[in-house]
Amino acid sequence: MTGEKSVVDNPSTLVWAVRLLYLECAALAALTVWLVVQDLTSDDVNIGVAASLTVFAAVGVAFIFFVARFLGQRRRGSRGPAIVIQLFVIATGGFLIQVNPLWLGVVLMALGVLVGLLVVLPASTRALGID
């Protein structure tokens, strides 16, 4: 069997990484909706800052969605952006640990590390054709 590559049809590591990316996308979409509601209903709001933050969150939703989709389609170039997203998730978790809520910071950091590891495990790497 030397010289043969093992073909992995659908590694669970990659499947779970994609599922968790979609979960992150859904959570950020919910946050975006909450920001829109806050923008529209708040009496004391700086329109420029509020709109910028809301648009930034919405762009993040689209970016995470497409990265998850491309990772699910096994596009080779999707692994790097998936890892960058997880670095942002870990950084956000670290910030939340400092300013509260502590539990959410711990959850985000664990999620970022988990998805990052799932994406770089050998089965996922082989499925993406990067080995």
UniProtKB/TrEMBL annotation:
Key words of the record: Membrane, Transmembrane, Transmembrane helix
TM spans (from-to): 20-37, 49-68, 80-97, 103-123
Protein name in UniProt: Uncharacterized protein
Species of origin: Paractinoplanes atraurantiacus
